[in-house]
DNA sequence: TGCGTTTTCGAAATCGATTAAGTAACTACG
DNA sequence: CGTAGTTACTTAATCGATTTCGAAAACGCA
């Protein structure tokens, strides 16, 4: 590896001069600087990120904290899209991405310690149990963090607009004439809480009274749970005409159950998902769903974090709400009178 | 952050002694070492990975190279499973994972330069265009690499056993009485080449003559292409009784086309996928497919790489073949006489 | 006691880069 | 001409850890 010392010898200047020339300091003669840069290029010089990090106390490395659980980790398209987007935006600003987890090697570390150990300049947190003490410790530490879909006091967060999304979905369904709308929700997370509240609020605004039985507890990313919930809904005396699922993937369970009972979508039952993953748009009929803008979320999270890292003085914690968009699909039947 | 110097002062010993005590060198008195370790723990000492990396020339950081294309990057479950598995195994050995890409920040870098810049001890390469000069440069460099599903000379590789997988799939289908088996394959990659060759070889061994028209060119992870290929197959005078798809996800396109033509699976057409992603096993009927053991592949790749990094002398390039397993599913109809 | 050996620890160099402080040499100006 | 200011560069310290070499102390044995 060619180092700054090699260049210095070759140019008959000190290492300091090379460093300054390469970093564009003003106290180096323009010609000298140009020559040094030229030689550096010829020799194929690359700065050593490690040495730089040690000296500057900045690693230009961003940690990402995603859970490992198969259920909602990288296997979930929503999160893999976010990750990809975070990565791209971070790289545009000169940052690399490193995964943060517990227990690196034999030493037991918590998330904070791992991030410190790796000198991460900041951490992006998504898809974790936000009540985990280790997560809370990290968020309350000296390391800048940005969370996704969860707000911590005095910390920046990027949020998918679940309230608007659910409202839009319900209004769309209502617009197609549906009055009996069931909702299978996910685990009791803050996301679920928001969607549920928005569901109730929107229904109330529309003058709908939703029976208790139309609200079913399911699980994110779990077709089996959705299948069972669907079965319970179909067993009701007064069946809903439309079922909203926790997410697109778990809808598959509902799809199977409907098929099993000989009901066709959307003729006999209207359905909608949430997320707008690739699968939802290749199914036929195309699934009506609300697409979360994972790309924008990842991008925004990375931007926010870089901002905190590079301009800590002027930084003020912000919660950025990212809107999604309705994918109308073909799974909501129009049951208005006269249609 | 508490450094080795802090501990040294607190213990009234030199930094050298602390370092040695912490690393278990033999020239430190057992009691002294124990005391130092005790104090280090009390003070919450964590080694600085950056400083260590600079001095030792080893970063304990593994780069992973995945393409960014939406088609087959992280959004593909096969690769996200591999990544997760690589990460877990790497962490067990004390390594972290960093993404490698071109152009970090403003400086244009190729993969090799990026890996060098970050002092990666090794790189795991998957899901890329293996003919890309930048990839080839990396593979032929001084940086240890392990490739997935592709072999470079004098380099270690971990391979999914596509030959055995396809053979097993074909034999299973044959065992159910099918003689007219069509195969929609993916892009002309080495994986496709192997599956195709294995398909032909197995058919020959079974005494089957497969008409040219039964071999269709599709695209991985692309339901649309599979849908079109399916349509062409269904338009044949002498239709196949079974269609093998490039992968589980792209099968969705075939599923839609069959549905559109009023054909039911497996009554009117038998089908099989490849990969064994979650989706395949929540569909009803359950998809017959060959599950690639992505977890084992990621684990093995990480193990191999750590081996190269830590024991470069005794290392010999190896190609490890990872077997998968047939998921019989319910999409192959038994059409044997008398059944 | 004397000399070689072992044990235990420290001083100092090192990894590659950055930067504060210092130093020539040169310029400007009254 | 002398002083102040500018320009262009160097010296040396520094980041946090590791390691070679050396040295003092303790020990062993005749």
Globular, elongated, flat, extended or rod-shaped: what is the shape of chain A?
elongated
- Residue share in helix of chain A: 40-55%
Query: Could you say how many structural domains of chain A there are in total?
Result: 3
Task: Please count the beta strands of chain A (DSSP E, at least 2 residues each).
Answer: 12
How are the strands ordered across the major sheet of chain A?
A: 2-1-3-4-5-11
Question: Unreliable runs of chain A, pLDDT <50, ≥5 residues?
Answer: none
| CATH second-level architecture of the largest domain in chain A | 3-Layer(aba) Sandwich
Query: Which chain pair has the greatest contact?
Result: A-B, 56 and 56 residues
Please compute the radius of gyration of chain A using only Cα atoms: 26 Å
Report on this structure.
2 copies of one chain form a homodimer. Chain A is of the alpha/beta class and 339 residues long. Chain A folds into 3 domains: 4-47, lambda repressor-like DNA-binding domains (434 Repressor (Amino-terminal Domain), Orthogonal Bundle); 61-160 and 295-322, Response regulator (Rossmann fold), CATH 3.40.50; 162-291, Response regulator (Rossmann fold), CATH 3.40.50.2300. Chain A contains 13 helices and 12 strands. Chain A has helices spanning 4-11, 15-22, 30-42, 49-56, 77-92, 111-117, 133-139, 162-175, 190-205, 223-234, 248-260, 278-282, 294-310; strands at residues 61-65, 96-99, 122-125, 145-148, 156-160, 181-185, 215-217, 242-244, 270-272, 289-291, 319-322, 325-327. In chain A, the strands form 3 sheets. A 6-stranded parallel sheet of chain A has the order 2-1-3-4-5-11, covered by helices on one side. A 4-stranded parallel sheet of chain A has the order 7-6-8-9, with helices on both faces. In chain A, helix 5 (77-92) packs parallel to helix 13 (294-310) and helix 8 packs parallel to helix 9. The longest helix of chain A is centred in the last third of the chain and has 17 residues, at 294-310. In chain A, 50% of the residues are buried. The model of chain A has no long low-confidence stretch (mean pLDDT 94). The interface between A and B is large, with 56 and 56 residues. Chain A binds a DNA duplex (30 and 30 nucleotides) through residues 1, 3-5, 13-20, 23, 25, 27-29, 32, 47-48, 50-57.
